[in-house]
Amino acid sequence: MALVPYDENLVPGLSKLHKSSAEFEFADHRLRLAQDWSGLGVAGVIWDAAVVLCMYLELAPVNLKGRTAIELGAGTGLVGIVATLLGGNVTITDRKPALELLRDNVKENIPSDLQGAVQVSELTWGEGLEHYPSGGYDLILGADIIYLEETFPALLRTLEHLSSMESELLLSCRIRYERDKRFLRLLESLFSVQEVHYNEQRDIHIYRAVRLKGKTEL
Predict the structure, then answer these.
(1) CB of 147 within 8 A of CB of 181?
(2) Its Gene Ontology molecular function terms (predicted)?
(3) I need a labelling partner for 32 at 20 to 30 A (CA). Which of 8, 80, 134, 192 fits?
(4) What's the pTM?
């Protein structure tokens, strides 16, 4: 959600983030996504949480065929692109500054016969939610979106609006700070939360959450 660049001198191993593109192979497709660190900061590059979530979607028993999915804070769009290639009807969202890069990556990596199954849309958490169907998504996806504490209330309102009792939420993240744990505790006020995967090599957790019965508001 935030377009704030890290200081490359303070964070080790960031050289790959300064490349103009990154390549992957998912869902029997070779993907090449543009990156823009200098212009978009953290929203313009691909983080490990997105890669691990794509691996999970591809290899785990997550059924995407014919399901409606939405990705929050998509950045470059890797997760939403892979979800589309795996059969989902996907809305890929981020704030306005990230949309041009996001649209370019979708256009370059989604085959023409699947372009109708994906759309790119502006979404600032907690704002304009009436433009998105309440409880209208089978699957809600987020990779590395819980790192700014000031965004937590708006993010929770957004998750509440988008989800129904039948929705499934998948969050992929690195637990860096105590505030990340606080978000998970806040999430448990509305959702039943379970860790379903941990990638030890990349230190990435994936949490699955479903709405708690009887919980309709924060």
Answers:
(1) no
(2) methyltransferase activity
(3) 8
(4) 0.89
User: H or E stretch including 118?
Assistant: strand 118-122
- Give the pLDDT confidence of 100-128 residue by residue, as tens digits: 999 999 999 999 999 999 999 999 999 99
What pLDDT is attached to residue 217? 54
Q: Which helix (H) or strand (E) element contains residue 208? A: strand 204-211
What is the Cα 17 distance to its own chain's centre? 18
Long-range contacts of 34-37, Cβ-Cβ distance < 8 Å, separation of 24 or more: 34/76, 34/101, 34/104, 34/105, 34/108, 35/76, 36/101, 37/5
The residue ranges of every structural domain in the chain are 15-211
Yes or no: domain 15-211 corresponds to CATH 3.40.50.150: yes
CB 14 within 8 A of CB 41: no
Asked if 171 contacts 207 with a C-beta cutoff of 8 angstroms, the reply is: yes
In one-letter notation, the amino acid at residue 41 is G
Which residue carries 């957004």 as its tokens? 158
Is 69 a residue whose pLDDT tops 80?
yes
- Backbone φ/ψ region at 13: left (φ over 0), alpha (ψ -120 to 50), beta: left
110 CB-near residues (< 8 Å, 6+ apart): 81, 84, 85, 117, 118
Alpha carbon of 91 to those of 59, 101, 180, 196: distances in Å? 22, 15, 25, 24
> CA nearest 131: which of 91, 101, 170?
91
